[in-house]
């Protein structure tokens, strides 16, 4: 029983590293946000962070060694003790870091999981500061926000193709001008 | 053509205005209101991205009705360098260099937030000497940031001599950085587990000297600006932001404190050892450029106080360790490499493969000179971060441009954008 059991659409509550993560159903995101702002006092949206988990848990992507059960001594070069990480429900997580201006301050991470192409409700009506954060999430990760008043790229040029922070976006794939290789 | 009407100077002690001034439907874009402006009189002017008064490469698209700003939209991204993508490719310990370069004006504070995030995942115990030295350096860096803000903002409004006075003391702060970390900026002085080097010999007298000079310097700035008629005319009642609007727009740091929000993470969510030092959080209620200036000035005085308390404590810690004794994360002492095989192996493993950070996600926030600086880090248990994201206070501060620019004249634009203290490297990352 925690203080956040009444959050609409709550799927799971996680406690790790002293931080509370509330995983909610993407379909009820707006309801959950409105509830947290109006009933729980989270008037301040600190950040919206998307993360791409493509390739999470498969070898060779981030360089961990071993199997899900731990160390595998039969494979060459596996001196590491790292375990394979816990699987994730979908490809993208979008985390909303909220703050209540109280003493001591309360912080909570509201998290939703979406697959490529799934849309989320925009939280601009709840927290106006979400405007640029959602534009950045669209620009960098390609997550669309339904009902955003101005969902255009913010950091990359308007005609840019692809979303650079996705895991399948190559590093160094961009042609360098005046490099003599044109 | 509409006549230029300056908003009335706010009586200090009341919130600046009733009701929200955040534009609709887009909270960050002020659109021309056809009921107030003759559309054929409105002239759209491009401002920036390369303009000396925009604090970097910020582009503003301004709709002008005579001198009156009828609409404004900020365009960012010209300094986007993909720090977050780059950090995903590097091992944890190599990543330490990147955050400092994101916000090159408050480099140590940016380095600090990433180090704190990594340490939170690692669960590593940091020696108290490192904690106090970090606090000392973070405050020196806050002075550096505020001095650059003060100098350039005053310069942009026309008080050219302020720049030279502010940079006189700013030079001392980077010299302290050089003494401590070897380089004037981007020192990479904070490491997971502690500091890169011990407090250098001769640091205390030099730093105490700096504190004395800084006090004198702040008095000088006070004399030049605080009751200067021209400065008051240019800043009072300009760029209004109410407390409610500031919260809704995610404002933090000096911008929020100038709008009457009594909030400072150093006091309200203490990290390092901020709960053991004595300082006051300045709060003003005018919500205008002048109050942002006063918050910056008062914060500088408080930073000097904190530095002096840090020095008192650090002097008692002579000879104590400055980095954690954890050979899986911290590089072994250099001299051991010649005598100990284990040290050599640890050194080799950390440098080539990097240390591993336990799986998990954390969000760490500190009070940077610009406000709430957050760092969200995801680790998959490997030697490289899976995802790093910085919550840049400058990025959020620029979201308030449209609200602050409502009813402003074009001449106030420089003062307002300057007062929000955006560092474009941090905005665009």
Structural write-up:
The complex is a heterodimer of chains A (182) and B (429). Chain A is an alpha/beta fold and 182 residues long. Chain A has a domain at 57-85. Chain A is built from two helices and seven strands. Chain B has one domain: Cytochrome-c3 Hydrogenase, chain B (Orthogonal Bundle), CATH 1.10.645.10. In chain B, 46% of the residues lie in helices and 12% in strands. Chain B has a four-stranded antiparallel beta sheet with strand order 1-4-3-2. In chain B, strand 7 (360-368) and strand 8 form a beta hairpin. The longest helix of chain B has 30 residues, at 128-157. The radius of gyration of chain B is 23 Å and the shape is globular. Chains A and B meet through strand 3, strand 4 and helix 2 of A and helix 1, strand 7, strand 8, strand 9 and helix 14 of B.
Keywords:
heterodimer, A: 182 residues, alpha/beta, five-stranded mixed beta sheet, 2 helices, 7 strands, B: 429 residues, alpha+beta, Cytochrome-c3 Hydrogenase, chain B, four-stranded antiparallel beta sheet, three-stranded antiparallel beta sheet, 9 strands, 12% strand, disordered N terminus
Architecture blueprint of SSEs:
The complex is a heterodimer of chains A (182) and B (429).
Chain A: E1 10-16, E2 19-24, H1 29-38, E3 44-52, E4 92-100, E5 106-114, E6 119-121, H2 130-141, E7 144-146
Parallel strand pairs in A: 2-5, 6-7
Antiparallel strand pairs in A: 1-2, 3-4, 4-5
Chain B: E1 29-30, E2 43-47, E3 59-65, E4 68-75, H1 83-89, H2 92-95, H3 97-102, H4 107-122, H5 128-157, H6 160-181, E5 190-191, E6 194-195, H7 203-226, H8 229-235, H9 243-248, H10 253-258, H11 265-268, H12 289-315, H13 341-352, E7 360-368, E8 371-379, E9 385-391, H14 393-399, H15 401-405, H16 410-419, H17 424-428
Antiparallel strand pairs in B: 1-4, 2-3, 3-4, 5-6, 7-8, 8-9
């Amino acid at each position: 029983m925690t203080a956040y059991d009444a959050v609409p659409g709550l799927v799971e509550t996680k406690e790790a590293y002293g931080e509370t993560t509330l995983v909610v159903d993407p379909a009820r995101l707006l309801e959950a946000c409105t509830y947290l702002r109006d009933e729980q006092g989270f008037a301040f949206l600190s950040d919206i962070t998307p993360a791409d988990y493509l390739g999470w848990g498969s070898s060779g992507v981030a360089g961990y060694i071993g199997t899900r059960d731990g160390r595998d001594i039969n494979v060459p070069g596996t001196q590491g003790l790292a375990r394979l990480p816990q699987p994730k429900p979908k490809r993208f997580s979008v985390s909303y870091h909220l703050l209540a201006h109280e003493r001591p301050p309360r912080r909570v991470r509201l998290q939703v999981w979406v697959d490529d192409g799934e849309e989320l409700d925009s939280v601009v009506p709840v927290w106006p500061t979400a405007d640029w954060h959602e534009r950045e999430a669209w620009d960098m990760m390609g997550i669309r926000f339904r009902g955003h008043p101005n969902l255009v790229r913010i950091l990359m040029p308007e005609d840019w193709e692809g979303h650079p922070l996705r895991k399948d976006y190559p590093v160094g794939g961009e042609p360098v001008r005046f490099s003599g290789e044109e | 053509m509409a006549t230029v009407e300056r908003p009335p100077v706010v009586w200090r002690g009341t919130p600046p205005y009733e009701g929200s001034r955040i534009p609709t439907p887009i909270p960050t874009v002020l659109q021309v209101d056809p009921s107030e402006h003759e559309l054929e009189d409105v002239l759209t002017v491009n401002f920036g991205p390369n303009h000396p008064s925009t604090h970097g490469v910020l582009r503003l698209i301004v709709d002008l009705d005579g001198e009156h700003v009828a609409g404004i939209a900020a365009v960012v991204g010209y300094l986007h360098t993909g720090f977050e993508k780059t950090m995903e490719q590097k091992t944890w310990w190599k990543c330490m260099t990147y955050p400092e370069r994101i916000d090159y004006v408050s480099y140590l504070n940016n380095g600090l937030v990433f180090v704190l995030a990594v340490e939170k995942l690692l669960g590593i115990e940091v020696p108290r000497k490192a904690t106090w030295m970090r606090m000392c350096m973070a405050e020196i860096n806050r002075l550096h940031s505020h001095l650059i803000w003060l100098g350039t903002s005053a310069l942009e409004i026309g008080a050219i001599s302020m720049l030279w006075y502010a940079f006189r003391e700013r030079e001392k702060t980077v010299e302290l950085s050089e003494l401590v970390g070897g380089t004037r900026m981007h020192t990479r002085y904070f490491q997971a587990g502690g500091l890169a080097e011990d407090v250098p010999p001769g640091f205390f007298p030099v730093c105490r000297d700096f504190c004395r000079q800084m006090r004198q310097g702040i008095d000088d700035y006070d004399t030049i600006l605080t009751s200067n008629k021209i400065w008051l005319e240019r800043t009072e009642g300009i760029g209004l932001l109410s407390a409610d609007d500031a919260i809704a727009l995610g404002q933090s740091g000096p911008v929020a404190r100038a709008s009457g929000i009594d909030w400072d993470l150093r006091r309200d969510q203490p990290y390092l050892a901020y709960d053991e030092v004595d300082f006051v959080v300045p709060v003003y209620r005018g919500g205008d450029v002048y109050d942002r200036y006063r918050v910056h000035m008062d914060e500088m005085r408080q930073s000097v106080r904190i530095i002096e308390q840090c020095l008192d404590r650090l002097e008692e810690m002579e000879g104590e360790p400055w980095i954690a004794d954890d050979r899986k994360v911290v590089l072994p002492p250099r001299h051991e490499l010649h005598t100990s095989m284990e040290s050599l192996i640890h050194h080799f493993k950390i440098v080539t493969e990097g240390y591993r950070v336990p799986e998990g996600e954390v969000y760490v926030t500190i009070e940077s000179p610009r406000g709430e600086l957050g760092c969200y880090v995801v680790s998959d248990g490997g030697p490289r971060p899976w995802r790093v994201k910085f919550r840049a206070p400058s990025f959020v501060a620029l979201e308030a441009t449209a609200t602050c620019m409502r009813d402003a004249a074009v001449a106030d634009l420089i003062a307002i954008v300057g007062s929000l203290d955006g560092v474009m490297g941090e905005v665009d990352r």
